[in-house]
Amino acid sequence: MKASSALPASLPAASPDGTPMGVAWAPIAAFCFLWSSAFAAAKIAVRDCPPLTLLTVRFLIAGILMLGVAVASGRWARPTGRDVASLVLLGVLNNALYLGLSWSGMTTVSSAFTAVLISTNPLLIGVLAGPVLGERLGWRKLLGLCLGLAGVALVLRSRLSGMQEDLHGTLLVTGGLLALVAGTLLYKRLKPTTGLWTATGIQSLAGAVAMLPIALLHDNLAEARFTASLFWSMAYMIVAVSIGGYYLWFMILGRASATAASALHFLMPPLGLLFGWLVLRESVSWLDLLGIVPIAFGIWLATRRAP
Protein backbone atom coordinates (compact mmCIF):
# COMPACT_ATOMS: atom_id res chain seq x y z
CA MET A 1 0.00 0.00 0.00
CA LYS A 2 1.41 3.39 -0.94
CA ALA A 3 1.89 5.94 1.81
CA SER A 4 -0.46 8.35 0.07
CA SER A 5 -3.26 5.79 0.06
CA ALA A 6 -3.40 5.99 3.82
CA LEU A 7 -4.36 9.67 3.71
CA PRO A 8 -7.91 10.87 4.18
CA ALA A 9 -9.67 11.47 0.87
CA SER A 10 -10.55 15.01 1.92
CA LEU A 11 -6.94 16.14 1.78
CA PRO A 12 -6.14 17.97 -1.46
CA ALA A 13 -3.12 17.17 -3.57
CA ALA A 14 0.14 18.91 -2.82
CA SER A 15 0.56 22.41 -4.18
CA PRO A 16 2.90 22.95 -7.15
CA ASP A 17 5.68 24.42 -5.05
CA GLY A 18 5.43 21.66 -2.43
CA THR A 19 4.30 23.85 0.45
CA PRO A 20 2.06 22.64 3.28
CA MET A 21 -0.86 24.34 1.49
CA GLY A 22 -1.32 20.93 -0.11
CA VAL A 23 -2.40 19.67 3.31
CA ALA A 24 -5.59 20.82 5.05
CA TRP A 25 -4.92 23.33 7.80
CA ALA A 26 -6.73 21.27 10.47
CA PRO A 27 -4.08 18.49 10.46
CA ILE A 28 -1.34 21.13 10.49
CA ALA A 29 -2.86 22.91 13.51
CA ALA A 30 -3.38 19.59 15.30
CA PHE A 31 0.22 18.54 14.63
CA CYS A 32 1.68 21.82 15.93
CA PHE A 33 -0.45 21.63 19.09
CA LEU A 34 0.41 17.99 19.83
CA TRP A 35 4.13 18.25 18.98
CA SER A 36 4.72 21.37 21.09
CA SER A 37 2.71 20.08 24.06
CA ALA A 38 4.88 16.95 24.20
CA PHE A 39 7.79 18.86 25.75
CA ALA A 40 5.79 19.86 28.83
CA ALA A 41 4.29 16.37 29.16
CA ALA A 42 7.77 14.84 28.93
CA LYS A 43 9.11 17.23 31.58
CA ILE A 44 6.37 16.02 33.94
CA ALA A 45 7.06 12.35 33.20
CA VAL A 46 10.86 12.47 33.69
CA ARG A 47 10.34 13.72 37.24
CA ASP A 48 9.03 10.30 38.24
CA CYS A 49 10.84 7.87 35.92
CA PRO A 50 14.21 7.74 34.11
CA PRO A 51 13.82 9.13 30.55
CA LEU A 52 15.14 6.18 28.53
CA THR A 53 12.93 3.68 30.35
CA LEU A 54 9.94 5.94 29.76
CA LEU A 55 10.70 6.16 26.06
CA THR A 56 11.16 2.41 25.69
CA VAL A 57 7.75 1.73 27.24
CA ARG A 58 6.15 4.54 25.24
CA PHE A 59 7.53 3.32 21.89
CA LEU A 60 6.60 -0.29 22.59
CA ILE A 61 2.98 0.42 23.54
CA ALA A 62 2.48 3.00 20.77
CA GLY A 63 3.97 0.67 18.13
CA ILE A 64 1.71 -2.23 19.12
CA LEU A 65 -1.36 0.04 19.11
CA MET A 66 -0.58 1.52 15.69
CA LEU A 67 -0.01 -1.86 14.07
CA GLY A 68 -3.26 -3.00 15.70
CA VAL A 69 -5.07 -0.04 14.13
CA ALA A 70 -3.57 -0.91 10.73
CA VAL A 71 -4.89 -4.48 11.00
CA ALA A 72 -8.30 -3.51 12.41
CA SER A 73 -8.87 -0.85 9.73
CA GLY A 74 -7.91 -3.19 6.89
CA ARG A 75 -4.87 -1.08 5.99
CA TRP A 76 -2.28 -3.69 6.91
CA ALA A 77 -0.11 -4.90 4.04
CA ARG A 78 3.04 -6.90 4.50
CA PRO A 79 5.94 -4.47 3.97
CA THR A 80 8.78 -5.26 1.62
CA GLY A 81 12.26 -6.01 2.95
CA ARG A 82 13.45 -2.62 1.70
CA ASP A 83 10.65 -0.83 3.52
CA VAL A 84 11.31 -2.69 6.76
CA ALA A 85 15.02 -1.80 6.61
CA SER A 86 14.19 1.85 5.81
CA LEU A 87 11.62 2.11 8.62
CA VAL A 88 13.96 0.53 11.17
CA LEU A 89 16.63 3.11 10.31
CA LEU A 90 14.07 5.91 10.48
CA GLY A 91 12.79 4.60 13.81
CA VAL A 92 16.27 4.72 15.30
CA LEU A 93 16.71 8.33 14.13
CA ASN A 94 13.19 9.74 14.61
CA ASN A 95 12.38 7.91 17.83
CA ALA A 96 15.37 6.47 19.68
CA LEU A 97 18.05 9.09 19.00
CA TYR A 98 15.89 12.22 18.61
CA LEU A 99 13.76 11.64 21.70
CA GLY A 100 16.37 9.70 23.69
CA LEU A 101 18.87 12.53 23.50
CA SER A 102 16.38 15.39 23.87
CA TRP A 103 14.59 13.76 26.82
CA SER A 104 17.90 13.04 28.55
CA GLY A 105 18.84 16.68 28.04
CA MET A 106 15.46 17.80 29.38
CA THR A 107 16.31 16.40 32.81
CA THR A 108 18.57 19.45 33.27
CA VAL A 109 17.06 22.07 30.90
CA SER A 110 13.54 23.46 30.68
CA SER A 111 10.87 22.11 28.35
CA ALA A 112 10.47 25.55 26.73
CA PHE A 113 14.19 25.76 25.96
CA THR A 114 14.12 22.25 24.48
CA ALA A 115 11.22 23.23 22.22
CA VAL A 116 13.08 26.32 21.06
CA LEU A 117 16.31 24.47 20.30
CA ILE A 118 14.58 21.62 18.42
CA SER A 119 12.71 24.19 16.33
CA THR A 120 15.94 25.28 14.62
CA ASN A 121 15.74 22.15 12.45
CA PRO A 122 13.98 23.93 9.50
CA LEU A 123 17.11 25.95 8.71
CA LEU A 124 19.32 22.85 8.69
CA ILE A 125 16.79 20.98 6.56
CA GLY A 126 16.38 23.96 4.23
CA VAL A 127 20.13 24.09 3.63
CA LEU A 128 20.52 20.32 3.16
CA ALA A 129 17.33 19.64 1.17
CA GLY A 130 18.93 21.04 -1.99
CA PRO A 131 21.98 18.76 -2.23
CA VAL A 132 20.24 15.75 -0.61
CA LEU A 133 16.73 15.91 -2.11
CA GLY A 134 17.09 18.32 -5.02
CA GLU A 135 14.52 20.72 -3.55
CA ARG A 136 14.69 24.32 -4.74
CA LEU A 137 15.22 26.91 -2.00
CA GLY A 138 13.77 30.20 -3.32
CA TRP A 139 14.38 33.59 -1.81
CA ARG A 140 11.07 33.58 0.10
CA LYS A 141 11.82 30.29 1.82
CA LEU A 142 15.41 31.32 2.51
CA LEU A 143 14.34 34.66 4.01
CA GLY A 144 11.59 32.94 6.02
CA LEU A 145 14.03 30.37 7.40
CA CYS A 146 16.53 33.08 8.34
CA LEU A 147 13.84 35.13 10.11
CA GLY A 148 12.68 32.06 11.98
CA LEU A 149 16.24 31.30 13.03
CA ALA A 150 16.72 34.92 14.16
CA GLY A 151 13.68 34.63 16.40
CA VAL A 152 14.91 31.35 17.85
CA ALA A 153 18.39 32.84 18.38
CA LEU A 154 16.81 35.73 20.31
CA VAL A 155 15.09 33.30 22.65
CA LEU A 156 18.24 31.19 23.01
CA ARG A 157 20.33 34.28 23.86
CA SER A 158 17.76 35.33 26.45
CA ARG A 159 17.95 31.94 28.16
CA LEU A 160 21.65 31.10 27.87
CA SER A 161 22.94 34.58 28.77
CA GLY A 162 20.99 34.43 32.01
CA MET A 163 22.60 31.03 32.80
CA GLN A 164 19.10 29.53 33.09
CA GLU A 165 20.03 26.36 31.20
CA ASP A 166 22.63 23.60 31.65
CA LEU A 167 25.34 23.25 28.97
CA HIS A 168 25.48 19.43 29.07
CA GLY A 169 21.71 19.21 28.70
CA THR A 170 21.91 21.69 25.82
CA LEU A 171 24.44 19.48 23.99
CA LEU A 172 22.22 16.40 24.42
CA VAL A 173 19.22 18.25 22.99
CA THR A 174 21.40 19.44 20.09
CA GLY A 175 22.25 15.81 19.33
CA GLY A 176 18.53 15.03 19.26
CA LEU A 177 18.02 17.93 16.86
CA LEU A 178 20.60 16.51 14.42
CA ALA A 179 18.92 13.08 14.57
CA LEU A 180 15.54 14.66 13.73
CA VAL A 181 17.04 16.49 10.74
CA ALA A 182 18.62 13.27 9.44
CA GLY A 183 15.37 11.35 9.94
CA THR A 184 13.33 13.96 8.06
CA LEU A 185 15.66 14.04 5.07
CA LEU A 186 15.93 10.25 4.92
CA TYR A 187 12.14 9.83 5.04
CA LYS A 188 11.85 11.98 1.91
CA ARG A 189 14.83 10.24 0.32
CA LEU A 190 13.83 6.64 1.04
CA LYS A 191 10.08 7.15 0.43
CA PRO A 192 8.74 4.02 2.16
CA THR A 193 5.61 2.74 0.39
CA THR A 194 3.98 1.16 3.44
CA GLY A 195 0.73 2.68 4.79
CA LEU A 196 1.15 5.37 7.42
CA TRP A 197 -0.21 3.34 10.36
CA THR A 198 2.09 0.43 9.55
CA ALA A 199 5.09 2.66 8.82
CA THR A 200 4.72 4.68 12.01
CA GLY A 201 4.14 1.54 14.07
CA ILE A 202 7.27 -0.17 12.75
CA GLN A 203 9.33 2.95 13.42
CA SER A 204 8.02 3.09 16.98
CA LEU A 205 8.83 -0.58 17.64
CA ALA A 206 12.30 -0.12 16.13
CA GLY A 207 12.83 2.80 18.50
CA ALA A 208 11.81 0.60 21.46
CA VAL A 209 14.19 -2.20 20.46
CA ALA A 210 17.08 0.24 19.96
CA MET A 211 16.38 2.00 23.26
CA LEU A 212 15.91 -1.08 25.48
CA PRO A 213 19.57 -2.11 26.00
CA ILE A 214 20.63 1.50 26.57
CA ALA A 215 17.84 2.00 29.12
CA LEU A 216 18.81 -1.20 30.97
CA LEU A 217 22.45 -0.08 31.17
CA HIS A 218 21.91 3.60 31.88
CA ASP A 219 18.72 3.98 33.94
CA ASN A 220 18.17 3.08 37.58
CA LEU A 221 14.68 1.61 37.77
CA ALA A 222 14.68 2.13 41.54
CA GLU A 223 14.22 5.84 40.81
CA ALA A 224 10.84 5.24 39.18
CA ARG A 225 7.77 6.37 41.12
CA PHE A 226 4.38 5.19 39.91
CA THR A 227 2.43 8.41 40.41
CA ALA A 228 -0.79 9.66 38.84
CA SER A 229 1.11 12.41 37.00
CA LEU A 230 3.42 9.80 35.46
CA PHE A 231 0.47 7.68 34.32
CA TRP A 232 -1.47 10.53 32.72
CA SER A 233 1.56 12.14 31.07
CA MET A 234 2.60 8.77 29.62
CA ALA A 235 -0.94 8.08 28.39
CA TYR A 236 -1.01 11.49 26.71
CA MET A 237 2.36 10.99 25.03
CA ILE A 238 1.49 7.51 23.78
CA VAL A 239 -1.96 8.30 22.38
CA ALA A 240 -1.74 11.98 21.45
CA VAL A 241 1.94 12.41 20.54
CA SER A 242 3.35 9.04 19.44
CA ILE A 243 0.20 7.94 17.62
CA GLY A 244 -1.47 11.23 16.67
CA GLY A 245 1.52 13.56 16.35
CA TYR A 246 3.83 11.24 14.42
CA TYR A 247 1.00 10.12 12.12
CA LEU A 248 0.20 13.75 11.26
CA TRP A 249 3.90 14.62 10.82
CA PHE A 250 4.54 11.89 8.28
CA MET A 251 1.27 12.71 6.53
CA ILE A 252 2.32 16.37 6.18
CA LEU A 253 5.85 15.37 5.18
CA GLY A 254 4.44 13.11 2.48
CA ARG A 255 2.41 15.98 1.00
CA ALA A 256 4.87 18.88 1.32
CA SER A 257 8.53 19.51 0.61
CA ALA A 258 10.90 18.76 3.49
CA THR A 259 11.80 22.46 3.76
CA ALA A 260 8.22 23.73 3.88
CA ALA A 261 6.97 21.00 6.20
CA SER A 262 9.83 21.46 8.65
CA ALA A 263 9.20 25.23 8.71
CA LEU A 264 6.17 24.42 10.85
CA HIS A 265 8.61 23.60 13.65
CA PHE A 266 9.25 27.33 14.01
CA LEU A 267 5.83 27.39 15.71
CA MET A 268 7.22 25.25 18.51
CA PRO A 269 9.07 28.03 20.43
CA PRO A 270 5.99 30.18 21.14
CA LEU A 271 3.80 27.13 21.72
CA GLY A 272 6.50 25.45 23.82
CA LEU A 273 6.88 28.61 25.90
CA LEU A 274 3.10 28.76 26.31
CA PHE A 275 2.79 25.16 27.50
CA GLY A 276 5.83 25.52 29.76
CA TRP A 277 4.26 28.59 31.36
CA LEU A 278 0.73 27.18 31.64
CA VAL A 279 1.55 23.65 32.75
CA LEU A 280 4.92 23.93 34.52
CA ARG A 281 4.96 27.60 35.51
CA GLU A 282 8.30 28.08 33.72
CA SER A 283 9.32 31.73 33.43
CA VAL A 284 8.86 33.63 30.15
CA SER A 285 10.73 36.91 29.57
CA TRP A 286 9.88 39.81 27.26
CA LEU A 287 12.79 38.75 25.00
CA ASP A 288 11.14 35.34 24.60
CA LEU A 289 7.93 37.04 23.49
CA LEU A 290 9.80 39.41 21.16
CA GLY A 291 11.37 36.43 19.41
CA ILE A 292 7.93 35.19 18.38
CA VAL A 293 7.50 38.06 15.88
CA PRO A 294 10.24 37.08 13.36
CA ILE A 295 9.35 33.41 13.91
CA ALA A 296 5.73 33.97 12.86
CA PHE A 297 6.67 36.09 9.85
CA GLY A 298 9.35 33.60 8.85
CA ILE A 299 6.85 30.72 8.84
CA TRP A 300 4.49 32.75 6.67
CA LEU A 301 7.23 33.41 4.13
CA ALA A 302 8.62 29.87 4.13
CA THR A 303 5.25 28.17 3.65
CA ARG A 304 3.26 30.58 1.45
CA ARG A 305 2.52 29.85 -2.18
CA ALA A 306 4.68 31.51 -4.80
CA PRO A 307 2.64 34.05 -6.86
What labels would you give this structure?
73% helix; single chain; 0% strand; globular; 12 helices; disordered N terminus; mainly alpha; 307 residues
Question: Can you walk me through this structure?
Answer:
- By secondary structure, the protein is an all-alpha fold.
- The relative contact order is 0.24.
- Mean pLDDT is 77; it is low at 1-21.
- The longest helix has 28 residues, at 228-255.
- 73% of the residues lie in helices and 0% in strands.
- It is globular, with a radius of gyration of 18 Å.
Shape: globular
- Sheet-strand content, in percent, reads under 5%
Residue runs with pLDDT of under 50 for 5 or more positions: 1-21
Question: What's the overall average pLDDT, rounded?
Answer: 77
- Structural class estimated from helices and strands: mainly alpha
Level of helix content?
Answer: over 70%
β-strand number:
0
Q: How far is the first residue's CA from the last residue's CA?
A: 35 Å
What gyration radius follows from the Cα positions, in whole Å? 18 Å
Order of helices and strands: HHHHHHHHHHHH
Major sheet, described briefly? none
Write the layout of secondary structure elements.
Layout: H1 25-45, H2 51-72, H3 81-105, H4 111-118, H5 121-133, H6 139-161, H7 167-190, H8 196-218, H9 228-255, H10 258-262, H11 268-280, H12 286-303
Describe, in short, the structure shown.
The chain has 307 residues and is mainly alpha-helical.
